[in-house]
User: Fold FAD-dependent oxidoreductase from Treponema phagedenis.
Amino acid sequence: MKKFIARQDLDAKTRYIPPIIPPTTGRLFTEKIAIIGGCPAGLSCAFYLAEKGYRPTVFEKNENRAI
Assistant:
């Protein structure tokens, strides 16, 4: 089922691409933040940090992780 839905999205003429969300704080931070693991929790953490103005880096052990 998931493969079918993914194929439908890839073949669609108009794909949904989420907009880039600018930081809500209006400022950018220079601190380095590493997130270990590209699981849903890690990606969610990276999203909310980026939304606050940080630039997190996500590290994943596997090169081709399917989510």
